[in-house]
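Quick sanity check, protein adenylyltransferase:
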Amino acid sequence: MNNDPFKEYIRESEPNKRDKGYAWHTAIGLQAVDGLKTSEYLVHTAVRNIEGKISFEEANALLQAYYEENPAHDAEDRTEEADKVSVRIAALLSEKAFSFTPNEYLSIHRKLFTGIYSHAGCIRNYNITKKEWVLDGATVIYGSATELRATLDYDFSEEKKFSYRNLSMDEIIHHLAVFISRLWQIHVFGEGNTRTTAVFFIKYLRILGFDVTNDIFAENAWYFRNSLVRANYNDLKNGIHETTEYLEMFLRNLLLNENHPLHNRALHISGTFKEVEKPDIDTVKPDIEELKADIEKLFRRKTVRHIVELREAFPDQAIFGRSDVIRVIDIKPSRASELLKEMSEHGIIEPVSGHGKGKYRFRKKQD
C-alpha cells in the first residue's frame, strides 16, 4: 500500500467513518499475507467510500470497470486480485450479520474470491504443501483432502461446546489462539485460506464482545500468518515445537491494546535472525546524512527510513542480499526484493559478483 490515509479515519470521532476506515485499512493490509499489493486507484476509491460518496456496491462496480479498461499485461501481476478482494473484505467487515458455522466460513471464501478463483467457496479435493520463509522452506502439514469437511465440522462443534465462563484473560487468549490456528491448519481451500480465516476470526471476536477496531491486523498481517505457521509446525529432532506464543502476543496487542513487538525475524526457525551489530556512529553519520539528503525526494518517508537503516547496518563496502534486508528491517520477502530493485535502479546500490546471486553493496560516493 503506497498511501495510508486510513489511520486518521480510525481515530475519527464519527463512528461510521471510523468503522469504514478500520475495515478498509484491515482489508488492504491483509493482502500482505499472500505478498500482494493494492493500487493507488483502490485507495482513492476507498476514501470516497469512507466519505460516503459511493457505496460498497459502487466501489465494486468502479473496480470492475477499471480493470476491464486496464487489464494486467503480466500474468504475475495480482494487483487486480488484491484490489477486488480488498473491497469485498471491507464490505464484509462493515456488515454486522454473522453466524458461527462451517457454512459461514465457506460463504466468506466464496464472497471474497468469486470470479477470481474457480474454486471459490469449495472445499479442496487435493493435498497441498507450501514452502514457508519462516520455516526455511519447509511446509506445514495441512489437512488431508479426504477429511476436510469432517475436520472442519469437528472443530466448529468443539468450539461451540466450549465455555469461556470464569476463564482468565490469559486463558481466553490461549484458547482463541489454539482454535484459530487449528482452523487455519485445516486449509480447507486451495488458495485464500489466511484472508478468509482472518475475516471470519474478526467477525467471531466481535460476537464474543471484543471491539476489534485497531490497526493490528492491517500493520501485522504477515506476522499473523507466520504465527499461524509456527503454531502448526514441529521438527522435534532439531528442537522445534509448535507454539502459540507468537499468536498470543499478536492477540494481546489486538484485543488488549498491549504493545508487544511483532517482528517476523523472531519467528524464523533458524534462530539466526538476530539484531545486527551497529557500526561506529561517529564514522557513519556524515555518510548517512548525505545519503538521506540525496534520497528524500526520490522515495516515501518509510522507504527513506529503511534505506538509512540498511546503510547503517552495511557501512563502507559491506555486501548484503535479500535475507539480510529482511533481517535488518523486518519486512516480507517480496517487499525486500522490491526495495533492492528500487535502490539498484536509482544507483544507490550496485550488484556484486563472486558472492552468489542477488548480492549488493552501497555505491561509493564519487568525489
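Posting the structure with no commentary besides this: The CA atoms of residues 26 and 218 lie 4 Å apart.
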